[in-house]
């Protein structure tokens, strides 16, 4: 019996700790029309962030244009607390992943076109942050890796599944999923509030988290990360909590 869906794109809400966040509206009701990323100019402001003292392992492309950004890591949101969706509990924490055979499972239930396209872009062996979402204290709890690239999500054809899609056809499936495997827990829990503080500072100073999709596209449960974003967030696990 498959595990409940790891996500809920269609009715997603921003994390509870972000009441002031601007919600990016998804386009679930427009089949075959994929969402386009919109670049925004970071506002001016002051920063007390110490990111400039952090040694980057790779220099950013000059110009910083969106077209030059290369995504090679990911952030996967999942709900660690029980919540019923069409009578099915969609809870799935990192401990649930660790309890799976070979600590591996499929990442199903994504019903947003942009998130689906990110799933399809994932490559074998790439790593992702496992992020606990829609809970009292959202944040990053561990690291997983992609162990099987995108293939049809079987839940789209299951009428008993909360993410059943009657418009999808087996000869041309709309939705995809990947398999992920637990790698390790982060050395400490990295809360959303801490990541957000760095993001706001970097928007002003041009740091690596200035365009992090966790804050520009909050509703997406599958989010790409650049090497610089991944490395900076990972470096936070060695720092004392603020």
Automatic annotation (TrEMBL):
InterPro entries attached to this UniProt entry: 5hmC_binding (IPR052181), EVE_domain (IPR002740), PUA-like_sf (IPR015947), THYN1-like_EVE (IPR047197)
Protein name: Thymocyte nuclear protein 1
Location of the region described as Disordered in the Swiss-Prot/TrEMBL record: 1-65
CDD domains per UniProt: EVE
Highest classification ranks of the organism: Eukaryota, Metazoa, Chordata, Craniata, Vertebrata
GO cellular component terms given for this protein: nucleus
Native organism: Himantopus himantopus (Black-winged stilt)
Domain of life from the UniProt record: Eukaryota
Chain intervals with Basic and acidic residues compositional bias: 10-40, 56-65
Keyword match Cell membrane: no
Keyword tags: Nucleus, Phosphoprotein
């Amino acid at each position: 019996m498959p595990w409940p869906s790891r996500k809920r794109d269609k009715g997603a809400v921003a994390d509870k700790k972000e009441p002031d966040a601007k919600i990016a509206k998804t386009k679930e009701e427009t089949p075959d029309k994929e969402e386009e990323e919109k670049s925004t100019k970071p506002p001016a402001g002051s920063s007390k962030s110490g990111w400039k003292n952090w040694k980057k392992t790779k220099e950013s492309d000059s110009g910083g244009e969106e077209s030059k950004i290369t995504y090679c890591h990911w952030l996967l949101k999942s709900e660690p607390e029980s919540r019923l969706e069409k009578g099915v509990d969609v809870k799935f924490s990192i401990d649930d992943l660790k309890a799976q055979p070979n600590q591996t499972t499929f990442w199903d239930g994504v019903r947003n076109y942009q998130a689906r396209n990110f799933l399809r872009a994932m490559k074998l062996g790439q790593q992702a942050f496992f992020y606990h979402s829609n809970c009292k204290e959202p944040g990053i709890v561990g690291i997983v890796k992609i162990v099987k690239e995108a293939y049809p999500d079987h839940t789209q054809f299951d009428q008993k599944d909360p993410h059943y899609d009657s418009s999808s056809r087996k000869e041309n499936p709309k939705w995809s999923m990947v398999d992920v495997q637990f790698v390790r827990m982060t050395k400490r829990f990295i809360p959303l509030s801490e990541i957000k503080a760095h993001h706001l500072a970097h928007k002003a100073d041009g740091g690596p988290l200035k365009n992090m999709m966790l804050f520009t596209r909050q509703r997406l449960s599958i989010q790409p990360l650049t090497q610089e974003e991944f490395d900076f967030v990972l470096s936070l696990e060695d720092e004392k909590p603020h």
